Each structure stands twice: as structure tokens, then as C-alpha cells.
Amino acid sequence: MQQPLIEYRLTLAGYDTRALELEGDGPPLLLLHGYADSADTWRSVLDRLGRAGRRALALDLPGFGTATRLARDEPILPQHDRFVAAAVRHLHAESGRDVVVVGNSLGGCSALRVAADADLPLAAIVPVCPAGFDHPVWFSAIEAQPLLRHLLAAPVPLPEAVVRAAVGEGFRQLAFAHPRAAAQEVIGAFTAHHRTTRDLRRYLATGRRMLPELVDPFDLHAVTVPVMLVWGDRDRMVTHRGSRHVLEALPEARFELLEGVGHCPQLEVPEQFSALLLAFVDGLPVPRKTRRRSASGSA
């Protein structure tokens, strides 16, 4: 039975955000988007999870989408850490089950960071093309986009349609292995949060602030939960060669390299990605408490 997608406002760690939630069974899935994106990036995956009857929650990260702006007087990644940790505890309290954190790009960085917190009720993490490894070419690639440069150089405010069209074309070229195959509704969902050049300047300023934090942001050896690392082999923004850092520190991690896929597998191959995700979650170890209950119940 298809689970309905519920959209509402939620406050976590002092940040107001937009939530897209599915009720359902299985370990709850927390879905985190990337830089300058929003919870809308997960709509195709949420549709498939809903058809599978799974519980999931996608959120706008602070500073992006419709969420509260980031505090200007402290680093960005720790603010996201607090927000994501609060979201994990929220899902755990609602469902009574440990949480699987799934994150693309910046969201993948957040997933790897919170996985080092042994006090969080986590079942596993799924970093997808995570930011934070090797030279951060993603930001220089964004700034170098000709259309975006023309937008920012305009001496007068530009119509929303012009801004969104230019941002959408840049997004196609950077995020997709096959730019022209990107569905218009996917591009429209991304550009809905990039309506003015003021929005663009704010996102670019956030990116510049964050770059130094992404130089060495992880404590991978502290990660003890199961990990499935997913990457597109044609990712132009964060090369899949960064996977070696995760696999050297976490040799038991599962690595899925998707052929002919770019930076956002959840958008480019949602069916394939959702199938991988569900198979991974279904193969997770049964929590100890559940095993003890089952053993006592069958005795």
C-alpha cells in the first residue's frame, strides 16, 4: 500500500525546517540533501520508499531550502551536526528503532560525521558522493559556471524566470552525467529555492565559509555502524577517488560505484538507488534487543 507523503514544519536543535515524511515499517531512514539543495531532492526516492511501505524523513538542512538561516558566528558543520543528531533522536523516539542516515554530498558529509558519535541511536549510514575528501573541486566548478557569473554580474535585479533558468542549466551540467536527460520537474524543484541573485550570493557565501571546514572533517576510525558508500563514476563535483579514504579506514564498508551516474544518484537513477538502499537496510543485523525479545518469545 502506498504510504502518503506528509509535509510539515519541524523544529530541531533550535532550527525550524520543512519535513517530508513517510510513515511505514522498517528502520527509519533520515534523508539529507547536499549543498544549495533541499529535501525535494529525495522526492523520487520517497515515492519508491512509500510504495515499499518504509518509514522515512527528508529535511531541509539549516541554511538551505526553507530552513532557518545558519548562525553567522560559528562554523557551519557543527551546526549541521547538532541538527542531524536532533533529527536522529526525533526519529528514534517516534519509531522506537535505530535510524539509518542517508546523505548526498554535504548530507553525506553529515552522515559520516554523526556516525562517529557512539551515543546516537544509529543502525547504519549511507553516504552518497559525500563531500569532504581530496581537493574540493565542487565549489570552484560552481563559481566557474558562465551563466552564474553573468547573473551575478548583472547591474540590476533579474526576473525570477531568468535566474531559475540559468541556475537550472548550471545544475544540469554539474550534477548529472547526462544533463539533457534530467527531468524538468527535478530541475524545477532545485531552482525553486534559487529565485533571485540575492539567493545565489547567500549560497555562494555559505560555500566559501564552509570550504576550510571540509579540509579534514571526519573521524572515520570512530565509525562503528555498518556503512554503504554510494558514488557515481561520472561525478564531476566530488570525484569517486575519495572513496579510498573511507575504505582504508573502514575496510568492512560496502562500496557501490554506479556506472554512468553523476553527483546525485537519487535524481539520476532513483529506481536503482532505491533498490540498493532497501536491499542494504533489509540486510542489516537485527538489533540486540530485538534478538533477545525473539529468543525469549520462542523459548
Descriptive report:
This protein has 299 residues and is α/β, with parallel strands linked by helices. 42% of the residues lie in helices and 18% in strands. It has a six-stranded mixed sheet with strand order 1-2-4-3-5-6, sandwiched between helices. β1 and β2 form a beta hairpin. α1 packs across α11, α2 crosses α3 and α5 runs antiparallel to α6.
Give the arrangement of secondary structure elements.
Blueprint: E1 5-12, E2 15-22, E3 25-32, H1 43-51, E4 54-59, H2 76-95, E5 99-104, H3 106-114, E6 122-128, H4 137-143, H5 146-153, H6 160-175, H7 184-191, H8 197-210, E7 228-232, H9 243-249, E8 254-258, H10 265-268, H11 270-282, H12 288-298
Parallel strand pairs: 3-4, 3-5, 5-6, 7-8
Antiparallel strand pairs: 1-2, 2-4
pLDDT < 50 stretches: 289-299
| Content of β-strand | 15-25%
Q: What is the percent of helical residues?
A: 40-55%
CATH architecture annotation: 3-Layer(aba) Sandwich
**Rg (CA only):** 19 Å
Total number of helical segments?
12
Q: How would a textbook summarize the main sheet?
A: 6 strands, mixed
Estimated structural class: alpha/beta
CATH class: Alpha Beta
Task: Give the strand tally.
Answer: 8
The CATH topology annotation reads as: Rossmann fold
Strand order of the largest sheet: 1-2-4-3-5-6
